[in-house]
């Protein structure tokens, strides 16, 4: 069982995407007001679909980045999702 929108987008994986939001309610929040994409979907894209960078998440996976103002508003959430997968010490100089 998962929301219809997730089933249409993720098919049989929709329940797994929804489950991550159930475990951590913050992941169920939209990445920007008025847009349905959630942080759980960003994290799913990074962990299970091989999303590699901001552009991949914003433009290819979610298409949020196609509207410049939405891209800017979603950047923090995208960077957080990518940071979840960064190896310990990555980015430290």
Description:
This protein is mainly alpha-helical and 93 residues long. It has one domain (4-84). Helices cover 56% and strands 0% of the residues. It has helices spanning 4-10, 14-23, 39-48, 54-61, 68-84. Helix 1 packs across helix 2, helix 2 packs across helix 3 and helix 3 crosses helix 5 (68-84). The chain is globular, with a radius of gyration of 13 Å. The termini are far apart. Residues 86-93 have low confidence and may be disordered.
Mean pLDDT: 85
Helical residues, percent: 55-70%
Annotation, overall tally of beta strands: 0
Number of helices: 5
- Main pleated-sheet profile: none
Structural class: mainly alpha
Low-confidence stretches: 86-93
Q: What separation lies between the terminal Cα atoms? A: 44 Å
Q: Round the Cα radius of gyration to an integer and report it.
A: 13 Å
Task: Write the H/E string, N to C.
Answer: HHHHH
Shape: globular
Q: Report strand %.
A: under 5%
Domain count: 1
Please sum up the structure shown.
With 93 residues, the protein is mainly alpha-helical.
Top keywords for this entry?
93 residues, mainly alpha, 5 helices, 56% helix
Compile the SSE list and pairings.
Layout: H1 4-10, H2 14-23, H3 39-48, H4 54-61, H5 68-84
